[in-house]
Amino acid sequence: MKSRFPGFTPDALTFLRALKRNNRRDWFQPRKEKYESLIKAPMLELVNALNGEFARFAPDYVTPPEKAVYRIYRDTRFSPDKTPYKTHIAAIFPRHTAVKREGAVFYLHFTEKDLLAFAGVYSPDRDELLAYRGLLQEHHREFEEILRHKKLRRAVGGLQGEQLSRMPKGFPPCHAAEGLMRRRQWYLEAILDIKLLTTPRLLPELARRFEVMAPLVQFLNRPFVHKPKPKKMAFMAF
Questions:
Q1: pTM for the complete prediction?
Q2: Does a structural domain hold residue 56?
Q3: Average pLDDT of the chain?
Q4: 8-18 confidence digits (pLDDT tens)
């Protein structure tokens, strides 16, 4: 049985527009219940419905809604921007064995005027970068074949992400996959019509994009497929 989601109400977008103009605690707190009913609860419902879709084509990325949906509260401790609330609503779907959300992920967010579906790697740490480059060094032809797929190119376009100006240290400068290995990011994204947000078409359109992007995510996560953690042995005190 297919999942269903009716879409957000137009009032959700009205709320986000007002929040953008009034990003203050004294404005938000009296309206917190409205945020909960118009945005948070439907977002959890959408994630639950998307999990039903992921179960078909990427079951390792099914994520409990309460873990997938980001909090609206911003961490302002180290930011010059002291506005207390995010003005985008987001959810992330990492591999279920990922440690601290390492590796490639599926991600979505929307603002009052933008709707984004994303899959891949955006801010890897040093060890992850080495793992991706090593993977691409050995299996770049397979990755290139994924990127050439016509259905993927029609749905989301080509590979995106920042690149270094030269080959990273430790890798051969004339490698056939130099263009891929110089990257610092490897991702695909689709900018969707915000009008979808308030219709039942939202779920199938997101699922369609995520499904065609799934081979890229699964390829990039090969270095991070963790074995089950060994059980701790109990020692008897003598």
A1: 0.91
A2: yes
A3: 92
A4: 999 999 999 99
The radius of gyration of the chain from alpha carbons, rounded to an integer in Å, stands at 20
Residue 140 counted as domain residue: yes
The label of the residue with tokens 């440690």 reads 99
- 73: its two tokens: 């509260």
Q: To the nearest whole percent, how much of the chain has pLDDT over 70? A: 93
Contact assessment for residue 88 and residue 72, using Cβ atoms and an 8 Å cutoff? no
Domain of residue 220 covers 10-224
Q: Annotate 25-59 with b (16+ C-beta within 10 A) or e (fewer).
A: eeebeeeeeebeebbbebbbbbbbbbbbbbeeebe
Domain count, the chain: 1
CATH number of the structural domain spanning residue 35: 3.30.930.20
Q: How far apart are CA 173 and CA 96, in angstroms?
A: 35
Q: Is residue 238 part of a domain?
A: no
> Cα dist. 70→44, 74, 165, 223 in Å?
10, 10, 34, 26
Phi then psi dihedrals of residue 107, to 5 deg: -150, 145
* Tokens standing for residue 97: 């064995």
**Amino acid in the structure at residue 234:** A
SS (H, E, C) 52-107: HHHHHHCHHHCCCHHHHECCCECCCCCCCCCCCECCCEEEEECCCCCCCCCCCEEE
Q: How far is it, in rounded angstroms, from Cα 31 to Cα 37? A: 10
Q: What is the pLDDT of residue 1?
A: 45
